[in-house]
Structures are given as C-alpha cells and as structure tokens.
Amino acid sequence: MLPPVDIITGQWNYNCIIGASGLVYMLAFFIFFSGVFRWNMKLLTVSLVVALYYGSLIWGIFPEEFFSQLQEPSKISWQSHLAGSITGIILAVIFRKFGEKKRKFIWEYPNYYNERDDKMWQEYIANHPEDFEELPQLRQENIWEYLDEIRRKEK
Fold first, then answer.
1. What is the DSSP letter of 115?
2. What's the CA gap between 33 and 21, in Å, rounded?
3. Which parts of the sequence belong to the Peptidase S54 rhomboid domain (predicted)?
4. Which of 15, 74, 87, 113 is the most buried (most CB within 10 A)?
5. Where are the domains of the chain?
C-alpha cells in the first residue's frame, strides 16, 4: 500500500480506510490489462466492456484536490484506488502467460494442405477416373506379371 501522505502539503495523514474500492480497482485494471497483454480476442472484448463501463475509474486514482477546490479534504481514499490499480497491472503482467492458450488451427500452418492426406479427394479420384483421363497417368503395374517374373528368377 502507499503511505498516507497528503500530496499537496506533504503531511502524514493517519486515517483508517474502510471499503473494498481498492479491490474493485484492482479487478478492473487486472481484467483490462490482461486482455491487452495476452492479445486474446475474448479477453480484449471483455477489456473493452470494462473500459466502457468503468472508464471513469481512471480519475479515482488521483486526489480530488487536483481537479477542484474543496472546502475540506476529500474523504475518498485515492491511495487505495491507486494501489489497487497498480496491483492489478502488476498481476496482469505476472499472469499474462497463464490461462487459455491460443489454439492454432491446421489452416494456420504454412503448407497445411497435402493432396495425399485428403481422403475425400482421393476417394473422388478413385471413383471418377474419367474426370482425370486427360492428365498424365502413371502406368499401373500388373501384380501377376511381377509374380511371374519373381518365379522365373527363382528357377
């Protein structure tokens, strides 16, 4: 946590902070920066939703005295907001390699298509040879002639 120091006067303020707003800031900043650091489309969508709904959270990490002249000191703990946001960013950096891994589909690999591996294409070629008659054909060897040749060599 940050020390309870008044930024304007530099005096120490000994006060008790009650509430969970620092935790809210930590979660919001963690969710936003997790999406940014991981570059995952699902998390980026959630990050944009968080940014749209809680976009004004950024002003809560600064003291109100920066923006207006108040009669008395603000009773909002900007220190816990700032500490929560810094903690959320640090946690997003630490956990950026954890979680759901990016799946790589077969078509994302270079040279993924091989005609020999395509069973439907091979089946089509076998069932419709007339579609490929104009293509140069390999000579089909007669297995019986090959067997006869082996028998002749054995004699």
1. G
2. 18
3. 16-97
4. 87
5. 21-94, 106-154
Q: Helix 78-94 crosses helix 21-38 at what angle (to 10 degrees)?
A: 30
Nearest to 94 by CA among 106, 82, 83, 86: 86
- 139/116 Cα distance (integer angstroms): 18
> What's the rounded Cα separation, in Å, for the pair 16 and 1?
13
Q: Encode pLDDT of 110-141 as tens digits.
A: 777 666 667 888 888 889 888 877 766 677 77
Q: What is the pLDDT of residues 18-77, one digit of tens each?
A: 778 888 888 888 988 888 888 877 878 887 887 787 777 777 777 777 777 777 766 777
3-state secondary structure of 111: coil
What are the φ and ψ backbone dihedral angles of 42, each rounded to 5 degrees?
A: -65, -50
pTM listed for this prediction: 0.55
Give the pair of three-digit tokens for residue 29: 């900043």
DSSP string, 80-93: HHHHHHHHHHHHHH
Contact of 88 with 33, CB cutoff 8 Å: yes
Tokens of 98: 């954890």
